[in-house]
Amino acid sequence: MYTVTGMPLTRTFRVLWALEELGEPYELHPHGPRSPEVQALNISGKVPVLQAEGEVITDSTAIITYLADKHGALTAPAGTVARAKQDAITHLLLDEFDAVLWAAARHSFILPEEQRVPEVKGSLKWEFGHNLARLEDKMTGPFLMGEDFTIADIIFTHCLNWARSAKFPVEGEKIQDYGKRMRERPAFQRVAALAK
Hints:
Layout: E1 2-5, H1 12-22, E2 26-29, H2 36-39, E3 49-52, E4 55-58, H3 60-71, H4 81-110, H5 120-138, H6 151-165, H7 173-183, H8 186-194
Pfam family, one: GST_N_2
InterPro entries: Glutathione-S-Trfase_C-like (IPR010987), Glutathione-S-Trfase_C_sf (IPR036282), Glutathione_S-Trfase (IPR040079), Glutathione_S-Trfase_N (IPR004045), GST_C (IPR004046), Thioredoxin-like_sf (IPR036249)
Domain GST C-terminal: 79-196
C-alpha cells in the first residue's frame, strides 16, 4: 500500500492517476502545500509526496516514473530508444508547459504580492499556445508516444486541465480531441471524483 500526501487538485492528481491506471492500492492524506504535514515530509513544502518502501519520494514526475518502472507499465523499458524518446517528451512537457503554467501561478497567487508581475501572464499565455501548436503538429497516434499510453500522457493531460482552469489557450482540434479522450479514461474519472 502506497501513501500519497497532497490535494488531488494539485500535481498530486498525476500520482493518483498513475496509481489508478496501475491498479495499485494507496491511502491519500489530503494535505495542502506548505502544511505542517507536508513540510514534515518535504522541506520545500511541495506536494505530492509518496511514501514507499519506508522512503519518501517527492516530485510528481519522479514519483510516477518510479511507479511505472517498478510495476512495468505506463512506460517504455529503461535503456531503450523508446524510453529515451519518452523521457525527451516528458522533459519537453515539463519545460514548455508545466514550467509556463507554474510561472503564471507564481505571479498570480504564490509569490508575495510585492514580488508578483501580473503583466507577464500575457507573454506566458502566448508561449503556451505557441508550444501547444508545435506539439500538436508532431502528434501522430492516439497518445504522445504513438500507440502506447505512458506517464507523458498523464503529465500532458494534467497540464491541459491546469491551463483551462488558468484561462490559458487550449486550441487545436487534435489537442482538444486528445484531452477529451484522456479525461474519459476510467482511472482519470476515479481521480476526478476525488478532486470534487
